Amino acid sequence: MIATPAWPPRSTPRLFVDRPLAPGALRIDGPQAHYLASVMRVKAGDPVRLFDDATGEWLALVSAAGKRDVTLDVTERLAEREAVPDLWLVAAPLKKGRVDWMAEKACELGVARLVPALTHRTVVDKPNVDRLRVHMIEAAEQCGRTALPQVAEPVKLPALLRDWPEGRALYFADELGGLPARDAIKPGPAAILIGPEGGFDDGERAAIRALPQAVGMSLGPRILRADTAAAAAVAIWMATAGDW
């Protein structure tokens, strides 16, 4: 017996739409229309997957494809919005390129919220939050997420610690040592704190350790760059207390 091809095909284009989705006509313009019409070369009847960070993922069919816009017919919901593990990534902003990579991997790994934290040794004091969100959207489109991580406005470390939520653990990667990550992590709402390339200074480290919810943890015997440490710590948390 010949197998029935999967529908929609795995090669179907997938886009984030910044509006609530429902059955009916939907007009796409701008860069997304260019991507569908000029890059993917969709034509009438072709499927497109859509998600909106609210109602889940939907199937749409192209009804018209022009040079400046594409009209879709949203037909059915394919999946509900995913349940997201309650994990924040709090990280000192890095140089362009490395911070973009970190944002992408945070999205792919399942982080719920990204919080840029400004420290004494932070090399970028005004991270482009909109650009980080764009990179997260692109990552979500590629990896199949139906929920987007929130991206918070940058906050200085003292203010972050002062207002830290009482019921949320703060696991911070301390290059001077701490519990092995697999032993430090416990179930419950959590955040991972990653410092800048130069690490936390002595005053910052003391202030972090003074926070009752803070737990210092080690990421192993090798020194990791900040973006690598972020990805490693999130992966360990997801495997230990998340949804892996």
- Corresponding CATH architecture of the largest domain: 3-Layer(aba) Sandwich
String of helices and strands: EEHEEEEHEHEEHEEHEHEH
How many E-type strands?
A: 13
CATH class of the largest domain: Alpha Beta
- Give the termini separation: 36 Å
Overall form: elongated
Q: What is the domain tally?
A: 2
The proportion of residues in beta strands is 25-35%
Assembly type of the chains comes to single chain
Mean pLDDT: 92
| CATH topology label of the largest domain | Alpha/beta knot
Look at the helices and sheets and give the structural class.
Answer: alpha/beta
CATH superfamily of the largest domain: SPOUT methyltransferase, trefoil knot domain
What features would you describe in this structure?
The structure is a single chain. The protein has about 240 residues and is an alpha/beta fold. It has helices spanning about 30-40, 100-110, 130-145, 155-160, 180-185, 200-210, 225-240, and strands at about 15, 25-30, 45-50, 55-65, 70-80, 85-90, 115-120, 150, 155, 170-175, 180, 190-195, 215-220. The chain folds into two domains: about 15-80, Beta Barrel (Ribosomal Protein L25, Chain P); about 85-240, SPOUT methyltransferase, trefoil knot domain (Alpha/beta knot), CATH 3.40.1280. The chain has seven helices and 13 strands. Helix 2 crosses helix 3 (about 130-145) and helix 2 (about 100-110) runs parallel beside helix 7. The longest helix has 15 residues, at about 130-145. The radius of gyration is 21 Å and the shape is elongated. It starts with 13 loop residues before the first strand and ends with a helix.
